[in-house]
Amino acid sequence: MGHLRVLVCHNRYQQRGGEDSVFESEVALLRSYGNTVQVFERDNAGLDQSGRFSAAINTIWSNRSIGDFENMIHEFKPDVVHVHNTFARISPSIYWAANRLKVPVVQTLHNFRLICPQAMLLRNGKVCEDCIGKIPWRGVVRACFRESKAQTAVLAGMITVHRIAGTWQNKVTRYIALNEFCRQKFIEGGLPAGRIVVKPNFVDFDAPANVLRSGFLFVGRLSSEKGVDVLVAAASQIENAEVHIAGVGPESEHIQGVANVKPLGALGGDAVRVMMSRSMALILPSIWYENFPRTLVEAFGCGLPVIASRIGALAELVQDGVTGLLFDPGNADDLADKMCWALDNPDRMSEMGRNARNLYEAEFTAHRNYQQLIAIYRDAIEEVKTEFSHNKS
Fold this sequence. Notes:
alpha/beta, globular, single chain
């Protein structure tokens, strides 16, 4: 089998995030190796102004998406469909269309939306697994999505309808989980274990030349689940700790007026990587089950060790004492202790940075990721061909 024809589907969010970057990077990656790629795309811009009833129905099942999607399949004739996000305008209805036309579907699991209406397994600042593997009525009662029972009910309905209809079990040929921890959570949530494979995110860039490293760096959206308040509380305990924070978001006011915290605002990719090449460590103080933050891969690519919460996949992705340090999630005192240790042990931190770069070269390069992605596609294609031939006979 030579180059493939890949139809990549993605529903953009109202606020740009990591999923959009992964979608764009994988499209570029596939094209760079000679594959023919077509994009089926929707955007959630203006969604809040659309009719509530029609928006709710389309989240669960969109006839418009089916029609447009089937037309694209007939015209483009893809070997495989790769879906990143269907919420809210595309909807899971496209899985049924692809299945009817006997085109294999690969779905990347960027978050936990298929098993949690709020998508992050987080409630009131703490991990919540109450809806895993169950009808998510608790999420509705608690208004977990945007503090709205009505909006949560729509997402709970989407999860439940497609679970009952067998969409998650039968209409997706392969799921891509970003790490083994997340794979196990999706299995607990009812997704078929035999269809879930692990492929991490990647980044492709030339790392800036190393310079004298100092200080700490946070990169990401300034929101509660990212543990921004934990970082600020830790930083305020260490007089000689300079912490640069790159990002914007609803928690922006929490980083103002702290003497050793330097807000940088939103930075582009090149500027972020320059900061990574100058810093002693990246700090990931998240309080939720991060799936696979691209900033972690970027840090490793820049030879930058990571100080991360010991929670979910982060405890799997960061080897304590090897590629970084781990601290108890939500514990500002423990984070402050790890930051002080880093300041007192610059040679050990440099060694961890070299280990991180070696891990990046072994696991997270564009070439390595391409090999993994194409293997998943070909496996999915072969399975659908086998099922089709069996059905014909």
